[in-house]
Amino acid sequence: MQPRPAFDQPVDTRKGPILYVEGVSVSFDGFKALNNLSLYINDGELRCIIGPNGAGKTTMMDVITGKTRPDQGQVYFGQTINLLALQEHEIARGGIGRKFQKPTVLETLSVYDNLELAMASNKGVWSCLLHTLNGEQRDRIAEVLHLIRLTAQARQQAGALSHGQKQWLEIGMLLMQNPRILLVDEPVAGMTGEETERTAELLTSLAGRHAVIVVEHDMAFVRSIARTVTVLHQGSVLAEGSMDKIQNDPKVIEVYLGE
Ligand SMILES: Nc1ncnc2c1ncn2[C@@H]1O[C@H](COP(=O)(O)OP(=O)(O)OP(=O)(O)O)[C@@H](O)[C@H]1O
To answer: For position 32, which CATH number holds?
Structure first.
């Protein structure tokens, strides 16, 4: 039940970065949603991406995950794996997981069954649920339940979870595939203050074992988790650095005050 590797070579991160986005441009009817965008993410780092509406954040994630093909540029997973040569499902199975804003958990199944299914996304639902798990697989589910703080809810129907818990379950489902990179889109939208705090703890605990790229509008949340922040504007990187550096950057202040 291990995820099928999409690549026949290991991800080469010996130079540091696990993701290279270089000179990427995407046009929609002549409008440049991404304009010569270059961005490097180190293995295991937690990176926050911010930017005003329409800055290109979603388009950037679409390019990394193979949903949108750029007109120009290169995207590499480690030094050798050309993501632009792969299909969306190959990229997902090969180690780049994406969490969309809206949770897609199976509401009538238990939390546990959702995680079990996520471990074997290429098998049928029933063959997976009828299959007996081995010890290693059970350990992995227990480990992920603990990480996402849903051990006590393991046998509950996913539909009965709070909004925040559903978001964590979805992150857990991605973790079952052991991704090297996790892309997380607005993880705390609609969450309570306490859920937001727990999400910050969860995402920071994942960094190190996974590279985590978080796109988020909530600046207080970004401040609470960010080491390095990248600001996108008009499809390019406007500024990059620590939260303090970003907040005092006149270009960034202008873009945000101009909104
Ligand atoms: N399929 C599309 N067809 C035409 N224009 C598009 C398409 N997708 C995105 N755009 C345009 O490209 C620009 C960048 O959009 P994108 O969704 O990447 O920005 P964003 O930074 O994610 O914004 P938001 O914070 O509002 O989600 C926007 O002006 C958007 O209208």
So the answer is: 3.40.50.300
